[in-house]
Design a protein that fits this description.
The structure is a single chain. The protein is α/β, with parallel strands linked by helices. The chain has 29 helices and 18 strands. Strand 17 and strand 18 form a beta hairpin. The C terminus is likely disordered. Adenosine-5'-triphosphate binds next to helix 2.
Length: 716
């Protein structure tokens, strides 16, 4: 309205303006999805610079991802010109931590050119320590220790602060001791891991008054986006840094806290007013992102959580389309359906860049990737590797390649010592020598070298076993269906066991990816045909600038928005995840529900939720029931469609009455095409052998589903 108003203020609503203009003193912006929290924070940054309240180097702004940092930098750049050049303290906690640590490395015994280890390096180091400590790594995997150390670091605990109870969590009380050794070892090699980027900085701030004061003075203003997902160590940092000037502005949404598995504490929001007495709390209630139907649907789901702060949301946007719930027969149909709809949107003039598919678990991307490659639909995977590029998939493929093609040296090298078989660098070097000298592929050279006395007895035994395993698998390849062959190779080589030994969430994800790989193989005639497909997939990179549909996990989608969003795999055991259902209590389930809320609220115009009646799991067709979150969608905002004669709506009604939706479907009856197909693929296993999944937490009735779909009985 006022012509003289700076550009970043125009268009902001009154509470947003208040968040921007209340520059001094603590401010907490608490608001639901799409209410312009990030927009307000960006304008606030622009305001501080524009009014010269601070130099760019005097503002600490924390974003949740590097991508978000880049976006904020660009937006502020547009708003106030090039004043953002050199905003050194705009970034993620880790990026900011690395920068601070470089400056004060000597205070924690490092040199400022320290290396930052990736998880592979970290693990290798831990394994050496575990071995040296005479701990049975089979019983106490180094990976578990890695997870534990990470957890301690996220909590801000140094080795000295690990008490006996915590220490007990690894190798009968030796956790603390190994943590200490690990830290010493890192220091000796002038390195740190990701957790150290936060923990070391906290240690420095706590133990060095003058450094703390330096930063307390330096940071005139502190701002934090996605505050609900800060963990303890980040929280402690912020509290120390802001204690002096108290110009801190945090924005967040308790309903979008989805990283508790990585140590995030939503309680940090509740503590804010206590830590910073007199804080101004600003609520934003107007949503600018989504249509009323989308908001209504998201609100209906999240309303089932307890202990929420509770916020209002309204919008001026047109009511728009209802959220569509689509039931499909199985996973492949889901992928086909989404592909078709995306192409239809394209024909209607929408850009692929405005569309996204959100999955709950990484392994779900595979089916979509394969389908999109088949129909030539450009896609990108955000926040993770494309399926066939993931470490465990590349490893598994290397096993398959070496069975398929003994001369594949690259494959051989990749897996000859994965999992660790006790083949040292020396043994491998000798193998290479022989291969070169006799001009043989490595796997042939390996067979040859076993006849010599070149290797130590240990290396010889290890290599002998490996060569034997591969030879056996190659012999089996003639008789065994190739998915079964793959399963055996991965089992016999110890590869599956390597990931099973680890109890972390990451390992569970890798195992899921491996079974997804085996599942994918079933769609191809032979091992050769499958490998051919994969090499084509791997080559499908294309130009980065072209519009592409985005596939990503819900976790990676936080803070983002798309016109059209497909939410796939909304089935019990997938979403909510089986993990959350197996947990006692409702914590896990409530976090899944927040994920559902985040997922739905990414959509601006159109949200489509899909669930399949059948999924193939370990080669077996398993019937699945739609996610409870589907039932929680308020009827007014949803339009249900199913490719299976009304089964879905019947199911919705049943679930809300907490009844067993399969009660009147007899076991083993009502076999439809899915049964026959499954039996065919599996070489005629009877239906009775089907794996059944049991959902025993919520609702309290046990639903044991052995029939592929509730609607089969009604069909035709
Ligand atoms: P999330 O909780 O998902 O992170 P958010 O609260 O950070 O959401 P933003 O991403 O900042 O929300 O804003 C959502 C959308 O609304 C964006 O497209 C943004 O440009 C737009 N927007 C924000 N504020 C306004 C406003 N005052 N007028 C018009 N559009 C706005
Ligand atoms: Mg945001």
């Amino acid at each position: 309205s006022q012509a003289s108003e700076p550009p970043y203020l125009s268009g902001l609503n009154p509470p947003q303006r208040e968040a921007v203009l209340t520059t001094d003193g603590p401010v907490l912006v608490l608001a639901g999805a799409g209410t312009g929290k990030t927009a307000a924070l960006t304008a606030r940054l622009a305001h501080l610079l524009y009014t010269r309240r601070a130099y760019p180097s005097e503002i600490l702004s924390v974003t949740f991802t590097n991508k978000a940092a880049r976006e904020m930098r660009e937006r502020v750049g547009r708003l106030v010109g090039d004043a953002v050049e050199g905003m050194p303290w705009l970034g993620t906690f880790h990026a900011i931590g690395a920068k601070m640590l470089r400056r004060h490395a000597e205070l924690v015994g490092l040199q400022n050119n320290f290396t930052i280890l990736d998880t592979d390096d970290q693990l290798r180091l831990l394994k050496q320590l575990v071995l040296a400590a005479d701990i049975d790594e089979k019983r106490f995997p180094a990976r578990s220790l890695a997870g534990l150390i990470d957890e301690w670091k996220n909590k801000g605990l140094t080795p000295r602060e690990i008490d006996a109870g915590e220490s007990e969590r690894y190798a009968n009380g030796r956790g603390g001791e190994l943590y200490e050794q690990y830290q010493a070892r890192l220091r000796a090699v002038n390195a740190c891991d990701f957790g150290d980027l936060l923990l070391h900085v906290l240690t420095i701030l706590k133990n060095n008054r003058e450094v703390l004061e330096l930063y307390q003075q330096r940071f005139r203003y502190i701002m934090v986006d996605e505050y609900q997902d800060t963990n303890a160590v980040q929280y402690l940092w912020l509290r120390l840094l802001a204690q002096e000037r108290r110009n801190i502005c945090c924005v967040g949404d308790d309903d979008q806290s989805i990283y508790s598995w990585r140590g995030a504490q939503v309680e940090n929001i509740l503590k804010f007013e206590k830590d910073f007495p007199g804080a101004k709390v600003i609520l934003l209630e107007q949503n600018y992102r989504s249509t009323p139907h989308i908001l209504g649907a998201a609100g209906g789901v999240i309303g089932n959580n307890t202990g929420r702060l509770g916020k209002q949301l309204w919008t001026e946007l047109d009511v728009g389309e209802k959220v569509r719930v689509v039931g499909v027969w199985d996973g492949p149909e889901e992928a086909r359906r989404v592909g078709d709809e995306i192409e239809a949107c394209q024909r209607a003039g929408k850009s692929l860049d405005d569309m996204a598919i959100l999955v709950r678990a990484q392994h779900q991307t595979r089916e979509f990737e394969d389908r999109f490659i088949a129909i030539g639909l450009p896609y990108r995977i955000v926040g993770g590797f494309r399926f066939y590029e993931r470490q465990e998939i590349r490893d598994a493929l290397a096993y398959l390649r070496i069975v398929n093609q003994p001369a594949d040296d690259l494959a051989f090298e990749r897996i000859v010592n994965t999992p660790k078989r006790g083949l040292g660098d020396k043994a491998i070097a000798k193998l290479h020598q022989l291969a070169r000298a006799e001009n043989l592929p490595l796997s042939f050279a390996a067979a040859r070298i076993l006849d010599t006395d070149e290797l130590t007895p240990q290396a010889r035994r290890a290599l002998g076993n490996f060569v034997g395993d591969i030879a056996r698998c190659r012999a089996m390849a003639r008789d065994l269906p190739h998915p079964e062959l793959a399963r055996q190779i991965l089992d016999e080589s110890g590869y599956t066991a390597m990931w099973q030994a680890e109890k972390s969430a990451e390992a569970a994800g890798r195992l899921e990816n491996l079974s997804e790989l085996v599942r994918a193989m079933e769609e191809y005639e032979s091992l050769g045909a499958f490998l051919e497909h994969v090499s084509l997939v791997m080559d499908n990179e294309g130009l980065r600038e072209d519009p592409k549909v985005t596939i990503m996990t819900i976790h990676a989608a936080k803070g983002l928005e798309y016109d059209t969003v497909f939410l796939v795999g909304w089935e019990e055991g997938l979403f909510p995840s089986q993990r959350s259902l197996d947990e006692t209590g409702t914590r896990g389930l409530e976090e899944e529900r927040r994920l559902a809320y985040v997922a739905i609220t990414r959509a601006r115009r159109q949200a489509t939720i899909l669930h399949a009646a059948n999924r193939r799991i370990y080669g077996q067709w398993t019937s699945s029931i739609p996610s409870r979150f589907v039932a929680e969608l308020p009827d007014d905002h949803v339009e249900t469609e199913t490719t299976m004669s009304g089964g879905e709506s019947l199911w919705r009604a049943n679930w809300s009455e907490r009844a067993d939706p399969f009660a009147d479907v007899g076991r083993g009856t009502g076999r439809g095409p899915g049964w026959q197909r499954a039996a065919g693929t599996l070489g005629g296993k009877p239906g009775g052998d089907w794996q059944s999944r049991t959902f025993s937490r919520e609702p309290s009735r046990v639903v044991e589903s052995r029939t592929p779909a509730v609607s089969l009985g009604n069909k035709g």
